[in-house]
């Protein structure tokens, strides 16, 4: 490609990227609610990492159980399992023994929490709690818990901003682009600039002295 057509193509690509980054009126916006999730597998867990943070979007009207199911589907890990009573038994297949993991005389379970300024022990099960945007859903496995707020909370900040900032990196390792732009657009623009520079160098070397 010669310099003139390449320059026009680069200009068009750059203009398109600016429109995308600007989020013009009428653009399709994401639907549903955005929820932060913290899953703490507990101090005695052998899984890695022991504390998982995610920031996900779920349909409006979803509850805490829906959040866990959506997260498992997005991460392609085993779906959460429950006892006939509705008690949560496993997250991502942990613990392997399910609700029968506790030794005699102990109470092992997944404690359920809501974030905000502090962690608050949930007094309603996940199926009965409707999530809204900026909610923080927390879970911590208690191998020998009391089944009350005296059990330790998840080992991460209860702040929505902190959780989502920690999880706001695309799987490719590229930073998220504001306004819904695809991350390859700035890279393509940079490639155009480099190609124009190389053409300029070649033209300079071929010019008569």
CATH architecture grouping of the largest domain: Beta Complex
Distance between the termini: 25 Å
Helix content: 25-40%
Give the overall form. Answer: globular
> Oligomeric status of the shown chains?
single chain
Strand order, largest beta sheet? 2-1-7-5-6
Helix/strand class: alpha+beta
Question: Which stretches of 5+ consecutive residues score pLDDT under 50?
Answer: 11-24, 169-189, 203-207
User: What's the CATH topology name of the largest domain?
Assistant: Ferric Hydroxamate Uptake Protein, Chain A, domain 1
Q: Work out the radius of gyration.
A: 25 Å
How many DSSP-defined strands?
Answer: 7
Task: Give structural notes.
By secondary structure, this protein is of the alpha+beta class. 30% of the residues lie in helices and 17% in strands. The chain has helices spanning 3-21, 64-75, 160-167, 184-206; strands at residues 33-40, 51-58, 81-82, 88-90, 109-114, 120-121, 136-142. The strands form two sheets. It has a five-stranded mixed sheet with strand order 2-1-7-5-6. A two-stranded antiparallel sheet has the order 3-4. Strand 3 (81-82) and strand 4 form a beta hairpin. The longest helix has 23 residues, at 184-206. The protein is globular and about 45 Å long.
Q: Can you lay out the helices and strands and say which pair or pack?
A:
Layout: H1 3-21, E1 33-40, E2 51-58, H2 64-75, E3 81-82, E4 88-90, E5 109-114, E6 120-121, E7 136-142, H3 160-167, H4 184-206
Parallel strand pairs: 1-7
Antiparallel strand pairs: 1-2, 3-4, 5-6, 5-7
